[in-house]
């Protein structure tokens, strides 16, 4: 079994995916607009260039996404995508790049479990956590 986040956007899926590709080093494997699909006639003409399905691959981990039609978009909530890294500088880089233009809920800083940890919602409405955990100490 594999669990993959599926992100829903309000018309800016293509821009968001290209941004995630750049910041995270992911590869866009699919970017399919409504145009040319059986669904093209079921969305407004100005919406046909919007994305019906996208897939990003980050070292075998997938994030999928699409644009919701204008009358079906709901703001996301109740989850965050957690990015775990081992390098504190990489944690800072990712946090700073992805959070730019968004809303920071917890600035990236040291915590009792992490060398670096922070939470934010990016400019596209996706909630993220960046986590660079401290080495786990084994019980004696």
Considering the chains and any ligands shown, give keywords for the structure.
140 residues, alpha/beta, 2,3-Dihydroxybiphenyl 1,2-Dioxygenase, domain 1, 2 domains, four-stranded mixed β-sheet, 2 helices, 8 strands, elongated
Could you provide a short overview of the structure?
With 140 residues, the chain is an alpha/beta fold.
Structure description:
The longest helix is centred in the N-terminal third of the chain and has 12 residues. The strands form two sheets. Strands 1-4-3-2 form a four-stranded mixed sheet, covered by helices on one side. A four-stranded mixed sheet has the order 5-8-7-6, with helices on one face. It is 17% helix and 37% strand. By secondary structure, the protein is an alpha/beta fold. The chain is elongated, with a radius of gyration of 17 Å. The mean pLDDT is 93. It is built from two helices and eight strands. The relative contact order is 0.18. It folds into two domains: 62 residues, 2,3-Dihydroxybiphenyl 1,2-Dioxygenase, domain 1 (Roll); 53 residues, 2,3-Dihydroxybiphenyl 1,2-Dioxygenase, domain 1, CATH 3.10.180. Strand 7 and strand 8 form a beta hairpin.
What is the secondary structure topology, with strand pairs?
Blueprint: E1 6-9, H1 13-24, E2 27-33, E3 51-58, E4 61-67, E5 81-84, H2 88-99, E6 103-109, E7 114-121, E8 127-133
Parallel strand pairs: 1-4, 5-8
Antiparallel strand pairs: 2-3, 3-4, 6-7, 7-8
The share of residues in helices is 10-25%
Major beta sheet, specifics? 4 strands, mixed
The low-confidence runs, each spanning 5 or more residues with pLDDT under 50, are none
Work out the strand percent. Answer: 35-45%
The chain-level mean pLDDT equals 93
Structural domains: how many: 2
Shape: elongated
The overall strand count is 8
Strand order of the largest sheet: 1-4-3-2
For this structure, what is the CATH class of the largest domain? Alpha Beta
Reported by name, the CATH topology of the largest domain is 2,3-Dihydroxybiphenyl 1,2-Dioxygenase, domain 1
The radius of gyration is 17 Å
Annotated CATH architecture of the largest domain: Roll
Broad structural category: alpha/beta
Task: Output the helix-strand order.
Answer: EHEEEEHEEE
CATH superfamily of the largest domain: 2,3-Dihydroxybiphenyl 1,2-Dioxygenase, domain 1
Alpha plus pi helix count? 2
End-to-end separation in angstroms reads 35 Å
């Amino acid at each position: 079994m594999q669990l993959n986040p599926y992100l829903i956007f309000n018309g800016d899926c293509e821009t968001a995916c290209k941004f995630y590709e750049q910041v995270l080093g992911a590869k866009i494997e699919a970017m399919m607009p409504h145009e040319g699909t059986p669904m093209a006639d079921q969305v407004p003409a100005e919406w046909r260039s919007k994305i019906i399905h996208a897939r990003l691959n980050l070292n075998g981990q997938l994030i999928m996404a699409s644009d919701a039609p204008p009358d079906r978009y709901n703001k996301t909530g109740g989850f965050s995508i957690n990015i775990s890294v081992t390098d504190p500088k990489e944690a800072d880089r990712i946090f700073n790049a992805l959070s730019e233009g968004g809303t920071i809920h917890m600035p990236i800083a040291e915590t009792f479990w992490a060398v670096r940890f922070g939470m934010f919602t990016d400019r596209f409405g996706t909630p993220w956590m960046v986590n660079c955990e401290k080495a786990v100490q084994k019980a004696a």
